[in-house]
Inverse folding.
């Protein structure tokens, strides 16, 4: 009798969510699929961005990181998006990429961060990451890019960025 109750409880909890999970999973890239010229998986993309951010925090050569690992991640995300355009993790990884570009602190890194922010806003306007990307682009409703807090929107955005989780 106890086993029957357990099975009934498990079925009641799992069956209603099965169609929802199946629908969401069909839009997501599998972890063992590889994208881009450097053949990065979705986990490899996240790890590359995280590791590049850690190297930047250590003071390593920012231009080499921007043109190396972060460029590899950018290429892989573009290929990932081409195959799985509705994967909800793409916008999150794009935001992490944008943050890493910002952390480089170079003119080229800042330009790539702006481009990545525009990519998020254009392709994923309803994603939670788009709010932060809009802030980076200065879409605050103020026409000259400045508000009452001083500084342009990009400077405020860069100052607000928290380090990526370890």
């Amino acid at each position: 009798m106890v086993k029957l109750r357990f099975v009934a409880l498990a079925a009641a909890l799992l069956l209603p969510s099965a169609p929802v999970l199946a629908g969401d999973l069909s839009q997501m890239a599998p972890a063992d699929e590889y994208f881009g010229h450097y053949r990065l998986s979705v986990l490899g993309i996240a790890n590359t961005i995280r590791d590049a951010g850690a190297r930047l925090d250590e003071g390593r050569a920012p231009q080499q990181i921007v043109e190396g690992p972060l460029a590899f991640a950018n290429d892989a995300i573009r290929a990932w998006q081409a195959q799985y355009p509705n994967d909800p993790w793409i916008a999150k990884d794009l935001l992490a990429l944008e943050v890493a570009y910002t952390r480089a602190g170079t003119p080229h890194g800042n330009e790539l961060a702006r481009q990545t922010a525009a990519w998020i806003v254009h392709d994923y306007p309803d994603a939670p990451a788009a709010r932060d990307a809009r802030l980076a682009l200065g879409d605050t409703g103020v026409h000259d890019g400045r508000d009452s807090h001083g500084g342009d929107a990009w400077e405020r955005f860069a100052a607000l960025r928290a380090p990526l989780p370890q």
Observations:
- The CA atoms of residues 3 and 153 lie 60 Å apart.
- The chain is about 65% helix and 0% strand.
